[in-house]
Amino acid sequence: MPLRITNTLSGKKEDFVPLRAGEASLYTCGPTVYGLTHIGNARPPVFFDVVRRFLKVSGFKTTWVMNFTDVDDKIINRAREEKTTSDAIAQKFTQAYLEDLASLGVQLPDKQPKVTQYIPQIIQLVERLVANNAAYVAENGEVFFSVRGFAKYGQLSNKKIDDLLAGVRIAADEKKRDPLDFSLWKPRKTEDEPSWDSPWGKGRPGWHIECSAMAVSILGETFDIHGGGLDLVHPHHENEIAQSEAATGKIFARYWMHNNLISMDREKMSKSLGNIFLTRDFIAKYTAEALRYLLLSVHYRSPAEYSKTHVREVQAALHRVYSAKARAQAWAETTQTASLPEIPEEKTLAELGAGFEKGWFEAMSDDFNTPKALAFVFDYVRAANAYFDKKGLKPSVRTVQLAQEFLAKIDGFSQTLNLFGSDAQAYLGQLRLTVLQDRGIDPATIDAALAARQKARAEKNFAEADALRLKLSQQGIEIKDTPRGTEWDVAFTVSNP
Fold first, then answer.
1. Of the ranges 33-37, 241-245, 471-475, 481-485, which one carries the lowest mean pLDDT score?
2. Among 60, 257, 280, 331, who pairs with 55 as Cys (CB 3.0-4.6 Å)?
3. What pLDDT score was predicted for residue 496?
4. Which of the following CATH numbers is that of domain 315-424: 1.10.10, 3.40.1440, 1.10.3470, 1.10.730?
C-alpha cells in the first residue's frame, strides 16, 4: 500500500513520491526559545517524530530538520527582564526544549540549525530577492518582500490577496509599499539587541526568511515535506513559499503537512492566553507516555483537547495495554508446556495476531492515521485479555507461543509510535501511584484496609470484610482474591478506547 499524505497545498490526499527514490526529506518549524514548552507545543515534535519513524519503517532513508529561532523580540524582551543576554536566554530554553523532547521519547531531528548559525545564508537569500525585484529596501534599511509581486501568494491558505487584506487589521507602516508586505531584514533599534552587519546596515533577520534560508541550505531548493502546526499556514508558511520560490524559481516543498492544535476547555492553548499546562508539569503529574498517547490518539489533522476526563481515558487505555502485557509475560514464562485442545479464544487471538502488523501498517500508510492504528492494538489487547483471563486456562505449548507472539508484536508496534514499550509491571506500578495521587488517596490507607480485611476474613467476620471491600471499591480500587493472595488495582469507569 503506497503512503498517502494529505497535502495542505492541494487540499487532497496524495501518494507520497519522494524527490529522490528511497529517500525522504522533512523540515519542520521548531520553537522560538524564550520559555518552557506547554503541551500544545509538544504536539508537532511528537507527531513528526512518528512521521520520521514510519518513513524509516517504510524503507525511506529519512533526513529530518527542525530549526531553533534563537533571535527574536520575545527573547530580547525576556533577556531585558532577567538582566542577561539574549544568547543566555536562548541557550537556556533550547536546552530545556531538548530535555522535554527526550522525556517524550522524541528521537532528535538529524539536523537542528539555529538562526544565528545561518546569518550569512539569510543575507544571501535576501540579496537574491532584492536583486530580482521581489523585495525592496526602505529608507531606514529595512528590507520588505513585495507580496503582490508573487502571483501565487495565498495558495497554501487558499485565499486571495485582496481577501487577506480585507480580513486582517494591519497597522499602518509608511515604510511599506503595501500593507501585506513583510519584513525580511530589520534594522537594529537599540544597542543591546543582537545584530549583524549587512548590505543594508546592522540588523537581524525577519522571522519568515529564517526557515527558507535554513531549509534551502540543508535540504536544497526543493525538498519533500514541510510540516508544522496549523497556526503556521498563514502567514508564516505562506510567506516561506513566496520568498523561497521568488528567489529560486523552483517549488519549495512538495508536500505540506499541518497538525491541528490542542485546546483547554475548548480554547486554543497559548502562552498569551495564559491557559497552558507545561510539558514537564504534565509529565511529572501523569507520565510522559500519557502525554504522548493523548497527542497520538487523535488524528493529527483533528483538534485535540486536554481535560481531566481525557486524561482518565488515556490512563484507562494505557492500563488495558500494560495489564495485557503483564498477563502475557506471566504466561510466556510458564514451564508446563503440555499440548491441549484449541479453544475459541485461542483461535481469535491467533487470527488477530496474524493480521495485526498488516492492519496497523496500512492504517499508518493512510495519512499517518494513528487512532486507526491504535484501534488494531486494542482489538488485539481485548482478545489477549479474553484468552489469558480464561477460567481454567492451563499452560500449553500454544499458550506460551501466543503470549510470546503478543509481546513481540506489541513491542514491534511500539517502535513506530513509541508507545507501550515500557516494562509492564514497572509502568503499572507507576500508573497506580499516579492515579492514587490524582485522586488524593494515600497508598498506605489501601494497605491498611487490605490488612484489616484479611484479619476480618481470618476471623470469619465476612460482613466486615465485605464492608471493607465495598469501601475500597467506592474509592476506585478493585480487589481480587487469587491463589497468590489478595491483589488490588485501580479501577477505571471510562468506556473502552
1. 481-485
2. 60
3. 39
4. 1.10.730
